[in-house]
Structure formats: structure tokens, C-alpha cells
Inverse folding.
């Protein structure tokens, strides 16, 4: 229901670009003129809720929108439903809630907010043509079957589908292009930080001595939480001491993989600090929701909302949780994030880090700073929250490609730059952006040294064999120095497991670079060594296999196998597969 003028929101520059577009991106409005389903990607803390409430208001009051059309906001958590309901008045809107005892069926409000868990049971109470706009918050969940069912129901009657997320990559590898037709806008975290909308991130890497993760087997793209929590529970005391020492007086969110580990970590923190420590998880009691949307207080019970309120007010310094605050948690006072859960998921790490990147209120939204990025950066630096400290607890592992905050936020780096990034010491002195720049410089210097030494090195077998793994992986210019030691037994075994024959004959430096390339390609889900060599032998250009996803490579390998190892004739018409365009 429209209850008044939309005078409570002035879009920031990037929010306006997200809505209307710029030179790089179509923007949502222009995108929805061409496509029915569009996705917008903005880093955590950049006001996605305000953008889609603005768009809902604009849709409802458009002359092209029939007066009986409604808008639906879908989310997967109750807190994500409550946020737009609470903020709607700034846009002259009142939202109805479809959840629990509350229903929007037959209600006068033209905008509805609901969890997907509720809507999957109730969506057929609405006519297919009743909803003209569906907004999906945290849209990286939209490829799930329940979302697809609801989306398809309304989209079949012509509804626009608009998704918002900070992390568009899913752990299960399912691409969001199965749901969305177009990418309307993107504004990543480091770009927003450079523009002065988010605070700089200072990362500290702490390797937990004695933590052996190689005994764990990855599931669904990440380490299994249960087994990981059991291992981490053995190290809660040294981890707690590090957190207390490094965080100082900073309000700190601590992420743990399981509930037992979270409770153990909270208890360990209490041994090293007099500050208040609380632990929350999905089973922590919540305030009851009344039919009018208000929350009922529970006498004598410390609820999740009580903990959050006390954390935001400063009464709680350390808020420990298990998979609770990765999304939809807005606490700008957070100045430290402790990641006590090694992970292989860049998306998960990005979500956790994003809980601390918001600047303090009224720091960057002064009218005189609207068009002044340098001024906003200076305002953040002069505030009581000049940065956010991220303590990343990890372990040495030869089996798993563990992701830290710098890796997760680095964006498009070359293999050499990512390898250099591993060697950048993270002790809190460098921001994430500075660490990435240092890695680029280190990679460039290494490339220059290698180029200078190239002429002095003797020729090698992998310069002769066009299908040698070094050549297949595009590692041009590598030569073998016969004076150098050979690959270690451990490294040779790693390479052999990944399809490299005669790995023990490689020089140590070449083996290390090849190992790094394999690890990075595995992290990015690109074609494996064996796949690349087999496809290149079948005439697929090296440049294509270097950029090819492992899913695409697997599909081509299956096609090659079905054709008894003979290059399929279909490939001859595809230039990317070594053919010629018709």
C-alpha cells in the first residue's frame, strides 16, 4: 500500500547507477525493458534493501502497472523479511507479511514480504497474474528447487523477476544463469571501498598449529562442518587468546562451523576476557512474532534479538555464532571479524567478512561528500571505525584449497599473481587492497627475473612435447635448469595425482609453479590437467582449455568418449573447439 510520498531516500551514486545504468552496466530499469529476469550484485553494506524498495514504489505507481498488481519480496530468513517491512515507510510504503499467523491474501497492501519456506506452501493462494514483480533477496539461493517453483508460477503470467546478492557464486556449482537472463549491475567490495563507501579491511592470517585438515573430505564445495568443528574444538583456548589479544576493545563477531564448537569457543573466550561474550545459533530462542508484526518480549529469557541489541549497544563485545550472521546482519559498530572456520568457499568468506565493512552511521552520507570519493575515504579514516580487522584462522593443507579474505576479494588475478599473494605476510599492517597490489608487483618482478634468466637455461622436454602439462596449462617460457634440485617426493605425488606424468623429473621450481597452477585452477573450477591434455589432443585450442570450466570440460570429455575417442564432427563448426565457423 502506498501511504505517502517517497521522500525518505536519496540514492547514493552507485545506487542510482544500479537503477538507471552507466557506461558499463545497463542498470535494472533498462535491463527489465529487455529481459524478464535480471540480477544485480552489490557488496554487503551497500543498501540493496533500499534499492529494491525504491523500485517497488516505482513499479506500483507506474501508469503501466495495473491497479490490482502486487509486488513480492522473497527471502530465506525471517530477519531478511523484517528489514524491508521496517524500512518501507521511508518510501511511502506499507508492506504486508506472509509468514506464520500473518497473511497478505486479500490484504489491501500491494507489496508483500515473505520467506520462501512460507511461500512455497502458500503461493497458490495468489493468482498467477496477481504478482507483477518478484524481488529475491540473497538471490544466490534462487537456483534452489523451492525458489524455482515459486518463480516459475508467477513468471509464467509475466511477472518480472529481480534478484539481489553480494555473492553470486553457489557452493553446489549451479549457475544463477539458470534463473536470471541478464546481469544488470555489479559493484564489488574493493571497488566500493576505494570509492569510500565501505571501510578498509586489514587481514591477519593465523595458522593453527597442529590442526590437520587433510583427513577431511570436501562436500558440496567446502569442508564438512561437523568434522571441522570437532577438530577446531581441540584448539579453542589458543584461538581465544589470539582473538582477545588481537581484537583489543573492538566489537567482534566470531564465526564457527558447528554449535558445539561455538559454545566451546565462547567459553574459551570468557577465560581470557572480562568483557561480555554471548553465543547464538539457529536454536537460540527468538522473540515471538505477533500478528501485527511486532515482537513479544520473553520474560527471563535472553533471546537472539536481546544478544544482537546488546552487541550493537556495546554491552556485548564478543558475539559468537554458528552460521547465523552470514546474511542479513547489520551492525556497523563491528570492528573485528574472527573467522574460526577454515573454508574453501570464497562466497562464504566474503559473506562473513562483509559483516564488518559498513562504516559508522553518518560518516559518508553528508551532502558535501556525495560526489567526493577522496573525502569519504578521509572521513572514514578520521572516524571511530577507520578499518575492520579480519582475523583468519587457517591451517596448512596439501589437500584443500583454503580461501582467506584476501583470496576471496582479490577478483581477477593471474595465476602468477595469486601464487604471489600466498607469500604476502598478513599481519594486519596491510589492507586487503594493499596486499593485492603487493602481489601484483611481486608477480611482475618474478616474471622479469625469469625473462632475464630464460636465455641461460637449457631446453627441456616440455618445450618439445606440445601436450606436456606445462604446455597444456599455458605456462610459457619455463625452462629447466639442470643444476636445480628435482621435485620433492611429496610434490611429485601431488602432481601425479593430478595427471602429471614423470613429475619427479621436473625441477623443483617448475613443479612448484605447476602445483600452484593446479591448485588455483581447482579453486576456480577450471578444466583439470587430464581434461586439458585430452581435449588439446582432440584439436581443442590451448587458449580455449585455459579458460574452460570443469563442467564444460567434463561435458566435452563425455562427448569424446561416446564418440570412441574420435573428435566429434560437431566440433569442426565451433571455432572455440578448433573448428571453423560456417
Amino acid at each position: 500500500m502506498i501511504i505517502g510520498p517517497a521522500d525518505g531516500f536519496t540514492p547514493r551514486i552507485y545506487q542510482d547507477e544500479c537503477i538507471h545504468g552507466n557506461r558499463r552496466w545497463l542498470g535494472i530499469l533498462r535491463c527489465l525493458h529487455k529481459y524478464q529476469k535480471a540480477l544485480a550484485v552489490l557488496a554487503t553494506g551497500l543498501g540493496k534493501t533500499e534499492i529494491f524498495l525504491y523500485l517497488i514504489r516505482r513499479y506500483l505507481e507506474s501508469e503501466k502497472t495495473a491497479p490490482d498488481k502486487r509486488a513480492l519480496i522473497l527471502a530465506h530468513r525471517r530477519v531478511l523479511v523484517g528489514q524491508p517491512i521496517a524500512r518501507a515507510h521511508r518510501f511511502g510504503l506499507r508492506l504486508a507479511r506472509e509468514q506464520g499467523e500473518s497473511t497478505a491474501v486479500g490484504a489491501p497492501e500491494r507489496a508483500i514480504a515473505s520467506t520462501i519456506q512460507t511461500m512455497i506452501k502458500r503461493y497458490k493462494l495468489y493468482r498467477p497474474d496477481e504478482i507483477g514483480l518478484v524481488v529475491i533477496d540473497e538471490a544466490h539461493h534462487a537456483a534452489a528447487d523451492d525458489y524455482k517453483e515459486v518463480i516459475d508460477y508467477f513468471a509464467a503470467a509475466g511477472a518480472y523477476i529481480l534478484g539481489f546478492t553480494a555473492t553470486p557464486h553457489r557452493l553446489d556449482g549451479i549457475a544463477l544463469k539458470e534463473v536470471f537472463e541478464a546481469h544488470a549491475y555489479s559493484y564489488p567490495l574493493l571497488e566500493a571501498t576505494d570509492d569510500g563507501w565501505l571501510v578498509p579491511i586489514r587481514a591477519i592470517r593465523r595458522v593453527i598449529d597442529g590442526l590437520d585438515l587433510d583427513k577431511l573430505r570436501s562436500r558440496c564445495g567446502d569442508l564438512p562442518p561437523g568434522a571441522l568443528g570437532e577438530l577446531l574444538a581441540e584448539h579453542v583456548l589458543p584461538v581465544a587468546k589470539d582473538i582477545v589479544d588481537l581484537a583489543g576493545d573492538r566489537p567482534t563477531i566470531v564465526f564457527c562451523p558447528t554449535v558445539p564448537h561455538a559454545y566451546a569457543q565462547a567459553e574459551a573466550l570468557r577465560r581470557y576476557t572480562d568483557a561480555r561474550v554471548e553465543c547464538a545459533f539457529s536454536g537460540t530462542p527468538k522473540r515471538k512474532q505477533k500478528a501485527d508484526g511486532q515482537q513479544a518480549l520473553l520474560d527471563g529469557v535472553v533471546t537472539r534479538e536481546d544478544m544482537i541489541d546488546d552487541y550493537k549497544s556495546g554491552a556485548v563485545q564478543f558475539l559468537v555464532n554458528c552460521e547465523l550472521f552470514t546474511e542479513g546482519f547489520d551492525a556497523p559498530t563491528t570492528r573485528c571479524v574472527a573467522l574460526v572456520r577454515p573454508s574453501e568457499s570464497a562466497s562464504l568468506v566474503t559473506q562473513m567478512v562483509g559483516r564488518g565493512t559498513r562504516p559508522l552511521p553518518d560518516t559518508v552520507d553528508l551532502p558535501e561528500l556525495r560526489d567526493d570519493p577522496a573525502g569519504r575515504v578521509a572521513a572514514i579514516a578520521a572516524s571511530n571505525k577507520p578499518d575492520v580487522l579480519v582475523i583468519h584462522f587457517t591451517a596448512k593443507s596439501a589437500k584443500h584449497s583454503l580461501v582467506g579474505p584476501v583470496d576471496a576479494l582479490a577478483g581477477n588475478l593471474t595465476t602468477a599473481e595469486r601464487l604471489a599473494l600466498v607469500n604476502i605476510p598478513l599481519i594486519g599492517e596491510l589492507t586487503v587492497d594493499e596486499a593485492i597490489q603487493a602481489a601484483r608487483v611481486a608477480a611482475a618482478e618474478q616474471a622479469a627475473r625469469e625473462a632475464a634468466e630464460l636465455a641461460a637455461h637449457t631446453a627441456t622436454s616440455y618445450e618439445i612435447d606440445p601436450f606436456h602439462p606445462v604446455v597444456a596449462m599455458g605456462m610459457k617460457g619455463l625452462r629447466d635448469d639442470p643444476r636445480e634440485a628435482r621435485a620433492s617426493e611429496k610434490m611429485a605425488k601431488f602432481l601425479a595425482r593430478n595427471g602429471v606424468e614423470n613429475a619427479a623429473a621436473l625441477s623443483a621450481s617448475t613443479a612448484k609453479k605447476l602445483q600452484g597452477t593446479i591448485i588455483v585452477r581447482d579453486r576456480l573450477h577450471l578444466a583439470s590437467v587430464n581434461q586439458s591434455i585430452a581435449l588439446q589432443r582432440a584439436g581443442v585450442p590451448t587458449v580455449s582449455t585455459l579458460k574452460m570450466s570443469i563442467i564444460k570440460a567434463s561435458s566435452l570429455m563425455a562427448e569424446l568418449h561416446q564418440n570412441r575417442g574420435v573428435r566429434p564432427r560437431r566440433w569442426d563448426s565451433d571455432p572455440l573447439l578448433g573448428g571453423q565457423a560456417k
